[in-house]
Each structure stands twice: as structure tokens, then as C-alpha cells.
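Question (not urgent): is this output format expected?
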Amino acid sequence: MLKLQFNIQSILIIMVGVVRTVEYNAQLNESLLHFECTSIEPSMRNEILSFVYNMLPEREKEVYEAIKMTSQDEKEAAEENKEAASGTDSASSEHTGEAEKTDNIDKKEENDIKNTEVKTDSEIIGLEANGEQVEEIGPGGLVGIATKLDPSLTKSDSLSGTVAGEEGTLPEVLDSFSMEANLLDRVVGTKEERDVAPIKIKEPLMINCGTTTTIGVVTSAKKNDVDVVLKLPVCASPGDRVALSRRVGARWRLIGYGIIK
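Got this back:
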């Protein structure tokens, strides 16, 4: 266990966590630690998020805001379910080898921060499932994949939403796509029933593709055929399904799904 203490804009931050990896540089006599935080006060966590948020390029702020609002929705929904349950109780009393990963990594270029697609090759050196080392894994469940990637690439969940696979097998990274939109009859998550209105041109939609969350702006909407331009690119294949959410009031609500063409 390790305790870190530092300041962000004169605000004290204290984090407790564990060191996952250590890389020693003999020439500089320095060690690079990959630190995973396990305990932090909510107010301090918010300060870190605010600091990072203010550093994001403009095109990513809308996506970050959508993700934050979705997380808040999930938290409030869990609290509501907990209160409802409490009220009820009271009333009643894969193989090892080479892998290619597509990443969206921020690069500073001529003082401008741009979102750049980067393909990274790395050797898979271990697989873990159910707490045991294995030689092969299949679909389903959580797995651990050990690679030779620099741990600095994974800081701040920077690889969240990326796709890994054997070299040459990954789908294209898309900045825009066409899809067949299938809308629900009612908006999901609202207390009062709301009909789902048709998708409109220039409307922003929150799109969940695998583990990636992005914002898509509608450029064309003809019956069930919808074209979107993405704020952040996604790695996906034709036929993949994506979840579609619309801003209803102050929150994003699920309205249907799309099938990429």
C-alpha cells in the first residue's frame, strides 16, 4: 500500500492505493511507478476530475459531460432502488501471441491537442480468468490480459473503449457511419411515460459502441436510415449494434439501438 499527498491548485489531495508495476531507469536513477488508487475522498476525486476536465480538448468535453451525467443517473437510480427496497422491507418488516490495439490517444501537436488514432502492437505474455493463469480463453466473463505495453499508456483509463485483436483482424476506426435506427415506443428511465420522437437532423445522440461512449451528431435522417458524425471515433464493424440515448431534460435517456451499415 502507498499513500500519495499532493496539491492541485492549492487544494490538498490524498490518495491511498497499490503499486502495480515498477520500471527502474539506471541512467537517471529514477523509478516509474504504475499506481492504482483504491481509496480517495469524493470531494478530492471531484477536484481531480475537474482539473482533468478543464484540460480536455473542446471536442471531448461534451463526451465527458455525457459520461458523467450517465454515471450520475446510475448512482441516483441505485439510490432510488435502495430506498424502494428499504421501504418494502419496513412495510413487511483467448491464445497467447501477438495482438494489435487501436487507441485514441491525445497528442500535442503545434500547441494544439488533437485526438489521434494510434495502432499499437504488443505481445500477449499471459492470460488470467477466474483468478487462474490459463493458456486459452473464450467469449464471456472478465479476463486479464498481460502485455508488454508501457503502463503509462493506461493511466487515467486512457485505453478505455479501445479494441484488441490479432494483427490485421481489427475493424476500421470510424469517424462517422450510417446505421439502421430502431427506436423504442417509450423513453427508458423517466417517471412519466414519454413517447420517443423521430430522430432529427443536427440532433446530438449519445452512442455506446462496445465499451466506447461518444457523441454523434445526426447529419441525415430518412425513416430508419440515420447518418452521424462522431465527436470521438469508434472501432466497429458493419452489423455491430450500438445503444442510442437522447437528452431528455437534464439527462441522457435510452431511446433505442442502431445497427451499423
